[in-house]
Amino acid sequence: MKTLTFATSVEAAVKGADVVHFLAAQRHLRAGWLANVAMPEALRLLARAAAEEEAPAAPKTVHAENPDGGPKRFVLTVLPDERSRHNAPSRPEECFVAFQAADLPKTGSSAVIACLDEPGHGMAVARALGRALPQYRRTTSAPKKGGKKSAGAHVRFVGTDPDGVVQKLGTLERQVVEHARHAAEWVDTPPCELHTPEFVKRIKALARGVPHLTVEVWSGDEIRERGLGGLHAVGRCAVHPPKVLFLSYEPKSPRRRVALVGKGVIYDTGGLSLKPSAGMFGMKCDMGGAAAVAGAALALAKAKSKDAIYAVCGLVENAIGPDAYRPDDILEMHSGKTVEINNTDAEGRLVLADAASVVARRRKPHLLIDMATLTGAQLVATGHRHAAVVSNRGGLEAAAVKAGRASGDLVHPLPFAPEFYQPHFQSQVADMRNSVNDRTDAQSSCAAQFVYSHIADLDIPWLHVDLAGPAYRKDRATGYGVALVAELLRGLEDDDLVA
C-alpha cells in the first residue's frame, strides 16, 4: 500500500525520493516553472522540448532516467492549458490520468510536485493523487524464502505557484484527502469483509478521541421499533442486521446545523426483484453515499468545523431469503407515509428517506444533504464524472456546482419539479409506490423526489447528490463526495439557503 503525506518544501519532498514526478500546464513550463523549483538541467531540457511542441489536448507524460545519483527517474507531465467550463479549473481528472501514467514504484519513496494555477487548487490535485494510490488490494505474492514482505511505498506531495512558491494545504484539505482515500477503500472492500458491523467498527475507530464527536448506533429490530420501516425492511433478511450509524459533531456555538445522509447498501442483489448476474457485479459500490458522508463528517470534525454536523448512514444488505421484503408489501416509513413496494431493487430510496426523516426531525438542521449511488439514470443524464444534484433551493444548487468545480468532485443540476414527478408514484392502496411505472421521464429526478417527499413538510434546504457514476469507475472506487461536502460547507452563504 502507498502512503501519502504532504511536504512543506520542494527540497523536503525530493529528499531520498527514487522517482520525482512534476506536472504543470504547458504555459507554466514555457514560463520557466521548472527553473523556479530548481530542477536538474537534464529534466529542464526535457521540459523545454515538451513545451516547444503544440499544446497537448490530453496530458502528455515523459520519463527520463537519471544516471548521475539522486532520484533514479524523473517524470514530467504536460497538462493542457485549456479546459471547458464544465471541467474543474484545477484539472483533477487530467491529473489522475497523469499520476497513473507516472507509474510510481510500489516500494520506496516518490515525490510529486505540482504547479498550481491558483492557491486553492491544491486540494483537488492532491485528491487526484490520492485516488491514483488506492488503499485496498487483496492480491497475494510469495516472497522469496527467507525474504520479507514489502514495506510498501511512500509518496510525498507538494504544490507550488507558477513562481515556485510552495502552497501549503490547510488542515481541512489534508483531512479531506485522507478521508476520501478511506471512503474509496470502504467502497473497494467486498461485502464478505465490509458488512454492516464492520463498517460501524471502522468508523468508530476513526472517530475515537475526536473532540465533540460522538457515535450512536441502532441495530436490527430496534430500527423498526423506532419507526424506520423502510430501512429495516430492506435489510432485515440479511445475515448481518441493518444498522443506522449516527456521527454527531457538536462544537460550542456552532454556525449552523448540517445534516448529512448516506445510503449504505453494503451489497445490492436487487432483492426479490433480482438483478441479472451482469448487473449485480460491482454492487459492493452501493454504499458509496454512506462512505462519502462518513468520510466528510470525520474530515470536518477533525478540521474543527464551525458547523454542527449530524451525519447518518443507513447500512443494509439488500439480500434475498425467507424474510425478504416483497413486491406488494406496504411499509410504514419514519415520515408516517405508507409505501407500496413495486420494485425491491429500488431499495436505496427507502433507506435514504427513512434516514433523512429521522435526522431532519431529531436535529432540525438548517441544511440537509443526502448522498447515494441511487440510479443508473444518473449516468445517462450526467455521466461518469459529474454527479447529479437536485435541490429545492436555487442558491444551494448553484453553490453545489461552484463547490464541485473548486473541489474536483463535479456536479450538474437536474430538475426539481415535485408537481411533475410526484404523480408517477401514485398507488391505489398506499400513499405512494417506491418506483415509477414510466421509466422515460427523468428517472434520477424522480428518485430524488421520492426522498424529498418524506421531508417536504419540514421545508428544509435540501440537496440530493446522486453519485452512481463518479463514485465507482473502471472497477475502482474514487472517494467521491468527501471533498464536495467539505468545499460546499466552507463556501456556503446563508443567502444560498433562502432562494
Report on the architecture of this protein.
With 499 residues, this protein is an alpha/beta fold. The chain folds into two domains: 2-169, Zn-dependent exopeptidases (Rossmann fold, 3-Layer(aba) Sandwich), CATH 3.40.50.10590; 175-497, Aminopeptidase (3-Layer(aba) Sandwich). 34% of the residues lie in helices and 22% in strands. It has an eight-stranded mixed beta sheet with strand order 7-8-10-9-13-17-14-15, with helices on both faces. Helix 15 (394-407) links the parallel strand 14 and strand 15. Helix 5 packs across helix 6 and helix 6 packs parallel to helix 7. The chain is elongated and about 75 Å long. The two termini are 46 Å apart. The mean pLDDT is 95.
Question: Descriptors for this entry?
Answer:
499 residues; alpha/beta; Rossmann fold; Aminopeptidase; eight-stranded mixed sheet; six-stranded mixed sheet; 19 strands
CATH topology of the largest domain: Aminopeptidase
Summed over residues and divided by their number, the pLDDT gives a mean of 95
CATH class of the largest domain: Alpha Beta
**What is the name of the CATH superfamily of the largest domain?**
Zn peptidases
CATH architecture of the largest domain: 3-Layer(aba) Sandwich
Number of domains: 2
**What's the shape?**
elongated
Number of strands: 19
Strand content: 15-25%
Measured distance between first and last alpha carbons: 46 Å
